[in-house]
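User: Hi! I'm working on a homework problem where we have to compare a predicted structure to a textbook description. Could you give me the structure for the chain below?
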Amino acid sequence: MPREATRKVITDAMVQKLKPAPKGKRNEYWDAIVPGFGLRVTDAGGKSFFLRTRAGSQQLRMSWSYPANSLEAARAAAKAALGDVERGLDPKAKPAAETQAKVEKAANTFKTIGERFMKQHVGPRLALSTHREYRRALFGPDTAEWANRPVSSITRADVRAVIDAMVERGSPSAANNTLAYLAKFFNWCAEKDLVDVPPTDRLKKPGPKNVGERTLTEAEIAEVWQAFGAEGGAFCDLFKLLLLTGQRRGEVAGMRRGELSSLDGDRPLWDIPSDRTKNSRPHSVPLAPQAVTIINARPEIGEVGLLFTTTGKTPVSAFSKTKERVDGRIARRREEAGLSPMPDWTLHDLRRTMVTMMNERLGIAPHVVESCVNHVSGGAKAGVAGVYNKALYLTERRAAMIAWAEFVRALTARE
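Assistant: Happy to help. Predicted structure tokens:
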């Protein structure tokens, strides 16, 4: 260690003014502020800061080149290293750890992880239209500022700011969709241990829920029917019955053999008990021949006689994954034909499509259509009228269901 008299406060001016050391030598100047810290000047004029001290039984040497490192930065690094030595830590391991942290940080940016999510989750599973929506949410202008940030650094406040900005510019529906896609992404990140808690957790959609208005066209009915057939199995039959009967997804999925009667007669019927309907009213569904054919081919499984089950105890449930496969088939077929993607649609749209086309294309009386789908909001059944009008319109509904099934058969026969 240098004698106290040879130590002096190293300043920026001193660093800049020092001349090269004599040929074949190097000069060292010890700092009076930080013990063991100094400045080294070579005979070629190269300058660097150094730290020389003891760490236990070993001598510790560290250096920082100049001007890549300023005097202030080098002195601060030397102080930090001395602090590590006092705590029994190895300061030389710190740069390696910091370098590794930088590598991990670059590998875990929002953009990098987003691309990984698209490749591993979205690409192989979802329709092209959904693929585009995810790209818009993850890589569009609304989230562009997150691109180079660690995915774990995105906070609830960050997400809320993005969603609020979309609402303020008059896009509440887009804000709802973006939040849904971001929630799926961050939940996936949590599953991969990339974030502890998804920043979208418990965030509510900012815009009002859209009332569904989507109905399928005649050509789209034929497309989805063909895709249902390609799916095969229980979901093929279930989805086709959703379209043919217009009943709700849970009602069809929970169909039991004991609810069916006269399947071999001329008035086949499906009686849904009140505990399985949305409005808690028992509902009788006249079945068209096409529906009866599908039902008769279904095996009865389990003690309760479920027709759509894998366990015999509960109805099937993987609707979203199956719907994604159906969408994928439609998307591939359209792409091969050079057609634009089919607009997004839901399974509930099949019910709305039946109601709409029964009214507009088949000329069926509105009160009969309402009765077909167990609605009580129509004029014939709502309010005071509903108290007195207990008519089932069963004959009219049977004719309506048969007419609708024939309409669907004609559309799908063109395929």
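For your comparison, note the following. The domain at 4-102 is CATH 3.30.160.390 (Double Stranded RNA Binding Domain). The two ends are 92 Å apart (CA to CA). Good luck with the assignment!
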